[in-house]
Specification:
This protein has 322 residues and is an alpha/beta fold. The protein folds into two domains: 28 residues; 288 residues, TIM Barrel (Alpha-Beta Barrel), CATH 3.20.20.80. It binds (3S,4R)-3-hydroxy-2-oxopiperidin-4-yl beta-D-xylopyranoside.
């Protein structure tokens, strides 16, 4: 009798403790996704005041790109990166470092250096990022390996015997610099193209067999998403899921006038969200006038929710929005 009462009290205390912890971490009722999968968005130079009403994961839009941080050699500007990181941390949202090695938005000065200096600089950059953002939940280690190879790739292994030695080297460095983060690869043009997905899987398997990769990023921008068929999406997702790795939709957006965008979200978002291998979705912007591609916004510049967002809230069953 005494024993069972004690058990009830202990469970009550544990339950109360976990509720208080999640409130303190800001994880209770943030964003419109309420289950185990996150629905995140990007942060540019400042945090929109309604961010946490809708989203519960953070990727900096440009703030953690090498060219942004180290535009001038050996002079690091972490301002934008810190804004996004501190916001994510104080709200208990997973943060993704985007990105370490990429052929776009690399610093202008890197391509002119000697091979030895290039390698030393990339190594320093990866280590500096890891020292500062070692608590990042995720890191996009290599971005767009199929489309935008870095100018300095020969300095870090080149193609080599695997065909992707520079990618493997990058993940080895990232594993050391970010031992507590999930390491991801990220690419566009995958969701709409089974051949590209097969090529992507070849790189992924090289990394997987070496224990270097924890998840697969697929960007899913409007230039692929607007017209892709649901059957192509399903076939690509099953090709990626067959690796056994989790999939993260990393940069989703879709255009259209109100009704077209709504129809696209209704038809395609559930295909991504309900796939059991997909563990989280990040949208690439949401406020009119502040999105990378125009027409992809979900909130107008005057603050009105577009039909696709209203539907998304209803579909996900969250309490966010007003
Ligand atoms: C974009 C940003 O949204 C723009 O502000 C910037 O001018 C160019 O880059 N793939 C990526 C993202 O991985 O980092 C890109 O972001 C969009 C395509």
């Amino acid at each position: 009798m005494f024993r069972s009462k004690l058990m009830i009290w202990c469970s009550a205390i544990v339950l109360l403790g976990s509720v208080l912890t999640s409130v303190a971490a800001g994880t209770a009722h943030a964003g419109i996704a309420t289950g185990s999968k996150f629905l995140g968005n990007i942060i540019a130079s400042s945090v929109p005041s309604n961010f946490a009403t809708y989203w519960n994961q953070v990727t900096p839009e440009n703030g953690t790109k090498w060219g942004t941080v180290e535009g001038t050699r050996n002079s690091m500007n972490w301002t934008q990166a810190d804004t996004a990181y501190n916001y994510a941390r104080s709200n208990g949202f997973p943060f993704k470092f985007h990105t370490l090695v990429w052929g776009s938005q690399e610093p202008g000065w890197i391509s002119g250096l000697s091979s030895a200096d290039q390698k030393a600089e990339v190594t320093q950059w990866i280590q500096a990022a890891g020292q500062r953002y070692g608590n990042a939940a995720f890191v996009d280690v290599v971005n767009e390996p199929l489309h935008a190879k870095p100018s300095y790739r020969n300095a870090i292994g080149g193609d080599g015997s695997t065909g992707w030695d520079w990618v493997i080297w990058s993940f080895q460095q990232a594993r050391q610099a970010f031992p507590n983060s999930k390491l991801l690869i990220n690419e566009y043009g995958i969701i709409s193209d089974p051949n590209a997905a097969a090529n992507y899987v070849q790189i992924i398997n090289l990394l997987k067999s070496r224990g270097l990769i924890d998840g697969i990023g697929i960007q899913c921008h409007q230039f692929n998403m607007d017209t892709v068929s649901v059957s192509t999406m399903r076939s690509v997702l099953s090709t990626l899921a067959a690796t056994g790795l989790p999939i993260y939709v990393s940069e989703l957006d879709m255009t259209g006038d109100d009704s077209t965008q709504l129809a696209r979200y209704q038809e395609k978002f559930p295909v991504l969200w309900e796939n059991s291998a997909v563990k989280g979705v990040t949208l690439w912007g949401y406020i009119e006038g502040q999105t990378w591609k125009s027409g992809t916004h979900l909130i107008t510049s005057s603050g009105a929710e577009r039909p696709a967002l209203k539907w998304l809230k209803q579909y996900l069953g969250g309490s966010g929005g007003g």
